[in-house]
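User: Please look over both lines:
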Amino acid sequence: MPQKKTPYFELRSGAVDTLHFVVKTPELETLRTELAQRFEATPEFFAGDTVAIDVRRLAGDERVAVPALAEMLAEFRMKPIGVVANTEQADWAVVAGLPRLDSQERHERRAPRAGREGREGREGREGGEGEGRAESGHAAPAPAVPEVSAIPSTIIDKPLRSGQQVYAKGDLIILDLVSYGAEVIAEGNIHIYAPLRGRALAGVKGKLDARIFCTCLEPELISIAGIYRTGEHALPPDVQGRSVQVRLVDDKLIFEPLGLK
């Protein structure tokens, strides 16, 4: 029987863009400790955000208590909407109230990364200096075509005082001082053409290739895609108070002098 068209609602296929909470250990207390440490400086960072619980990184014999994990995420004010799991995980991972979700990542082919098999320490994730690396034995792949974003950049041309916060859905460009206690947040890159003394958080929706550029780096906290470093950990002399770019390499923040005169 054909259905009549109605002006009041539609049922259509679509894709939902949401954060993935990628589970790498079945130990709930370990996850709770790491969540508390990660968000102690920014407790409202993911408040109200929907997340998909992604269990595909677990080993074949590992299982996590999904209902308990969902409750834990809710304690941190995240809202689980479903589970991303392999076919062999579906029998235990898909539970009442959390349907199995498809993910675009399932169809992407990714090259394996060296040195990622063991569990990394927290200090290694939080920061440090890095060096460029070259791989041999294979021809270099063709450079990827950069994705063009339709979201315009946000430009701030006034100083940001303690307690002020700016959020940008695309890139964020700041032309004046970011004071202690101020916070600048962007889903894309952050450019600061002045001292950064407060907090800067780029790629907050999981954009791993986001970067932070600053002409005078003196931050209280700096973060890319949830990987952060606080001012309690002194920066190396060649980047403290200097022109720097910050990027992620294998879940580690890399600080590199820009060499601006």
Observations:
- The chain has two domains: 19-101, 154-257.
